Structure formats: C-alpha cells, structure tokens
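>> Question from a student workshop board

For tomorrow's exercise we were told to take the sequence and the ligand below, predict the bound structure, and bring the output to class. My setup keeps failing. Could a helper post the expected result so I can at least see what it should look like? The ligand is tryptophan.
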Amino acid sequence: MSEQNPSAIYLKDYKVPEFLIDKTELTFDLDETQTIVTSRLHLRRNPESNSATAPLVLDGGEDVKLIGVAIDTYELPKEEYSLVNDKLIITATPNEFILTCETLIEPQNNTKLEGLYRSSSMFCTQCEAEGFRHITYYLDRPDVMSVFTTTIIGDESKYPVMLSNGNEIERGKTEEGKTFVTWNDPFPKPAYLFALVAGDLNVINDTFVTMSGREVALQIYTEPHNIDKVDFAMDSLKRSMKWDEEVYGREYDLDIFMIVAVDDFNMGAMENKGLNIFNSSCLLASPKTTTDDAYLRVEAVVAHEYFHNWSGNRVTCRDWFQLSLKEGFTVFRDQSFSADTHSSVVKRVEDVSFLKTAQFAEDAGPMAHPIRPASFIEISNFYTLTIYEKGSEVVRMIHTLLGEEGFRKGSDLYFERHDGQAVTCDDFVAAMEDANDVDLSQFKRWYSQAGTPRVTVTDEYDEASKTYRLHMSQMTPPTPGQPTKLSLHIPVKVGLVSANNEPLSFVYEGNTHDETVLHLKDAEQTFVFENVTEQPVPSLLREFSAPVKLNYDYSTEQLLQLMSGDADGFNRWSASQQLAVNELNQLIVQYQAGQTLSEETQLLKGFATLLSDKTLDPAMVALILALPSQAYMSELAEEIDPHGIKAARKHLRELIAKGLEQEFKVAYETNTTDGPYEATAEQIAKRSLKNAALAYWVAAGSDEAASVAVRQYRNADNMTDQFAALSIIVNFDLPEADELLNAFYEQWKHEALVVIKWLMLSAAREQENGLANVKSLMEHPNFDIKNPNKLRAVIGGLGQNTQAFHNLDGSGYAFLADQIILMNKRNPQIASRLCTPLTRWQRMEPELSGLMKAQLERIAGEDLSKDVYEVVSKSLA
Ligand code: TRP
Ligand code: ZN
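>> Workshop helper replied:
Here is what the output should look like for this input. Compare the format with yours to find the bug.
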C-alpha cells in the first residue's frame, strides 16, 4: 500500500458544520476540453457551532483546478488562502459573505464517473456521496442544505438539452452566441442531490395529477436510439407516484419530474432532486430486448428513486453513517410497492433469497458492519447489501412490531417532524416510538450490531395438558471489531401445522391464534402454547420476520409436509429449500470422500405434487423448483469447495430431471403464454415456470427436449424466452451452442444492453479454455472498459464460471487481481467492488484460500485508492 495509509473517520466524532450555505449559485461553461465552473456561495457562520472564529474549510478534489477565489468583491491573493489535501482553507472570513470561486475541470478525462463526466455524447453528474467536491469547492456534507440556482452555458447544436434540478427559470444567448439555461430548485438540499445533464437527447412527455389536484410534468430523456424503450419506465413512475400517495400519503412537490438514462454509471440510479439519473440498464425496457427480470428491476428502481423524494430528499441524512436511514427505508418502500403490484409471496421469496445469499455472506466476512457503521475509510464502500437489504429488513421488523397502521402513524410523524431536515436513524426510531407509545430501545441494537444472529429452536409437546413449548435461544457471532454481542429484540412469526396439513390454532398469552409474533429478547426464552390438540409441526419465522439464521431440526417428512401444507407461502418455499440444502450437503460430503453420489432424492415426491397442483401460482412453483444456488451453498458452507458444490448441484438437478422428465415436458407445454408480450405478473409467472421446466427437461438429456430449446430460441418473440433458451443451450453445451451464441451477438450487436447479456453468458460458459475466452471478450470490439456494465458483465460472468475462476492453478484469481489493479486507478468505486470474491478467502478450502490471499497481498503492494485500500486491508487484517 502507500507510505501514508488512509485513515478512518468515526461517527462519534460528528460535529455540526462551522458554516452554512443558504444559497448556491452555479454557472457551468461547458466545453469539449475544459469546463469552467463559477460558484457563488452565500455563507454564514453556523449559530450552532461553538466556535466564532473557525476557518472556512471547503472540500475539493485532485481533479479540480482553482482559478480564483473572492470574498464578496475582494479577490483573495494567494497568501490569504491555502490548498491542503484537496481542501481550500480560508482562515479569516466575515461572519456572513458571498464566496465566489472559479474552478476548471475536465469532464472528458473523468474515468471515475463521479462529479461531472462524459458518458457517450452527453455530460452528466454523479454527486452521491462525495462527488460534488470534484466539481467545485464546497461544504460537501449532507447536513449543509442549500437552495441551488444553476446556469448551464453550452453550444446548442451539440447540447440542445441542458438540465438541472428544479424548474427552468430563464433561457437565452450569451455574447459569444452560446445558449444558456438557468434552473432553480426551491427546496434546500445537500450537494449530493445536485445534478446536471447536457446532450442531444430525445424526450417523452407525460403528466401526473397529484392527490391535491396539481399537474406535474413528467419527462424521460434518452439518447435518440433508445427513446422507444421508456414507456414501461414512465408507466412505473406514474404507478409509484400514486402508490406513495395511497400508502404513505406522500405527494410530489415540484411541478416537473425528469429522468435521464446514461450508459456509463457506477451504480443503478440516483435520486437527484427533480432530475433522477439512471443507469440505462435500470430504465430502458422493450419486449424484444429486455427480460422479465429486467422489467421488474426497471419498475423497482424507478419506484426506489422516486420514493427517495420523501425518504432521502425532503428528509435527508445528517451524515453518511446514517445512510441506511434513507436507503434501508427506501428499499423497504420499493419492495412493498413491488409486492403490492405483483405477488407478495413471490417478491418476498426473491428478496429473502438474495439477502440470505449475498448479505449474509457480507455479514460473515471481513467487511461486516452494522446498518449504521461506527467508522469508515471510504463511504463509497458502504453502499452495501447490509445498508440496503438488511437496512430494509430492520425497517420491516419495525413494521411487523407496530402493524400497518402503527407504522403509518410513525412514518407520518417522521415526515412531518423532520421535513427539510438532515437527521439520524435515532430520529427515525424516535418518531416510530412516539407515534405508537412503545419502547424500541432494545430493538435499536439492530442499528449498531453487525453479524447475522443465530436462532436455535427446540420444542416439546405434552399430550396430557395439550401444552406445546418452544425453547428459543439467540447468539450473534463475533464480527471484526465486535467480539461480543448483546441480545436483540427479534420478532419471530409462528404458526402450527397439524398432521393432516391443517392450521392448528393455539392459545398464547390468553388469546386464541392461528399465527402470532413472538418477541425473542433474551439469550434464552421459552414460549408456551395452550389448547394445542395434537403434536404440531412448527412453522417458524413466517414471511422471514427477522434477518436471522434459524435452526430447528426438521425431519425430511416434516419438511415435505410444510412444503405442501403450510398456510404461509413463504415457509413452503423455505421448507423446500431446506430439504434441497440437506441433500446437497450430503452429496458434497460424498463427492469430497470420492464416493459415488447417492441416486435417491426426496425432492421428487415434493416436486411431483407441486407440478400437478394446478391451483398454485406458476411463479411460486418455479421458485421452489430452483435448486439452492452455488452462491447460497457457498454462504452456508463451513469451508467452501466450489467444485464440490457444482458437482452436487449438477448431480441433483439430473436426478430430478430424469425422475420427473414427463412432468417437466407437460409443465413446459402447458405454460405457454398467448397474445403479445406483457410484463404482467401473470405472464411473467408462466414464462418463469415454462423456462424452469425446459431447463430440467433438457437436463434429462433427450433429443426432443434439446430440439424444443433450439426451436424456442429461433421462434421467440421476446428476450425472456430467447435468452432463457440460449442460456439452456449454452449451459448444457448443446451442439448448437457456438452457432447460436454468435447468431445472438450478430442479431443484437447494436443494442448495448443485450450485448451486456451476451458478454455475461459467454464469460460464464464453462469450457476448456474458459479464461482465455474471458480474456478475448475483453479484447472484443464491442467491449469497453469505460462502461461499468460491460466490465461487470464479463467479471461477473467469470465469477460464475467455476472451472475458470476457481482454477487450481490460480489463474482465475490472478486475472481478477489484474483487473482490480487496472481499475484502481481508472475507477476506484468499481475496482473496490470487484474485490468482493477475494474478500471471502478465509472461508475457502485451504488450497484456493491460499491462492486468493496471495492475490490480495499482491494488490496490497500497489499504490491504492482509499476504496480498494479499505477493502483489501480489512480482508488481510
Ligand atoms: N442513492 C443511490 C440509490 O440507492 C445510490 C447511488 C447511485 C450511489 N450512484 C451512486 C452511491 C454512486 C454511491 C456512488 O438510489
Ligand atoms: Zn437509494
């Protein structure tokens, strides 16, 4: 690493800002080679600071060149300010003044994609979390909120569209004949919500009438060739606006709401006030180019960014340690929206499956942190699954504890009390407590403790007294910096199931229930149920009421019973997963011992029942049929053996495929959709089951199934069916694989988002020369290292390619390390995210573990960005 290692900052050191900026006036003179930014900051000392003489310290960046600085009309000579570690420091200032700053930046050379940069033909910005300081010197922290007025000057022939936050208030020509446009955003906001876009863009227009009858103009902008792919996003936006009015009573505030799609973007999308900027992969959708999954993602991300207008913008974060205040809450809101729009059980299974695979792994690794971290080196590293997904689970638990109405009372109070403020997670919980007169003090430990709690359950039934007891214990394992943990308040939703699959009612604390929420608060606790007429099978943690690892020693028969008979749809899935996990674990042990793998599986019985039950939602059936993923099995393993997991999964899949070949054929044939493509829950459900059935049918090995897959590929009129068929053809290495992979590329080479799918599938393809193939993809004329989507597709594909990535010669890991070292300079945010697989080195089987560690050590020897330094040094600590 370097001489001077970057150091951490701590939540406990929070201090209010020394200055406030009431108004921010910006002028951007856009140009191909240099952009001049002039800022006029209306500064005054913060009355809440206890220093009356503190210097003014503005944040800047190594890429910002200061041309001149003035206080009111006084141009500061060099002696009266200093530039230290990218900060502009002025020791002597009046108490209230206007600071004018002129800076020069080069957006065309900005490869980090934060601040102002070029993406294809346009200028765009990304300011969260600390990107604004790469535009001009500023108090770049979320508790400094200011009213922004922005003037953009540019050549109208190149940049006919010039956008910023709020409303357009003026437009005209400069003396040199350039065009200027001035925007004003009346809502005070932190700099991270600033946005600017300029380019030759097309737009579609729509309107939304709010609940109080105001008409809001809606606009979505894209490059001209993509404007035919925004109808679904527009529709999703209008439905999100309506939903937030109905469910949270939240109305949109400005007269205009704009969204812009850009190709080069580090993350999914950004909620800039009145001017959301989206990664085009999260906005564009058309039946021929977009899969069902991607449609659902567009809908969820549009909703997420829109919902931020209240949970994030109107009420924002005091500091970045509070990131989950806006992200956890907003993810909870977008998940609820999608659940209400489609099937809530299906949505819950998908979200939980993702959480248990990816967030649990993060919580068990060297980067484990609470949803409100106590320290960080680089905030960009904390846009994590823990902040987002576990953060959402914590909000969901509050919802479970308070109920729908209580939660709404709490959110109303939160928005009302803190509108226009920058606040903390404590403020959020306090509003929930005050509105409901409850005490959530023990619950709040979820905000400060990292790690996934283990909940262990045993039970006993007393026939004579008809009493059933559940004994529960909880334990949260140590995480870096947190060796010991306190007991959490864990809501455990339970029901009881009878021998013939009926819900068993019970008396708990004097009331009769079919289902109840138990409050597990102590290290060990016993819950007593009365009037239980027979020995029940417990259905525990229904709807996944808490983000914990639950352990109850279910027999195979009990799991099969819950799988078909539990009243809770989520737990039916959960039981089937547990059953499959148990079998896979046995197969892994056999594989590692060099034994022949067992030819028997209990899943056949369960799956057969499932496939014959016409009353079930096909999407649910498809989810149950999906075997636990490679990633999920890795998360569960004591010691990860990727080759063993892969072999076990392949074996079990073939057993099921052969055992139910006829059933899969029938499921394939009966789940075709008719009529034109629609991204409706009903059609999506049928396609998911149809394609899951096709994969099993092909896995059984018949020529008939293979030719059906090829036919589906050729006849498909939508990307979901075309790509599902192609994936099956490639993954099962059917003879047509090479030909069709090439044909697919030729057909879609002008659609960037489809090329991304092709890159991913190609990189993931398991074959002899897998790594050489991945390398050649990165040399492909349509590959572009500047585009994070393409890089992620290839590297993500490689990560799924067990043979190539986890090769025992270490070449896969070395190649990944090369890319990290390259991207460390170009784009540190992306580089740091590429490190994730290597951070798991301590969980890998010894040989692979050593190879991974060696690559981390090689990276550590480089001159590292803060981003990569933090992840690598914590992984090696
Ligand atoms: N606030 C954005 C969201 O979750 C996240 C985001 C977008 C982001 N782009 C970023 C975070 C760049 C860090 C860096 O909706
Ligand atoms: Zn967000």
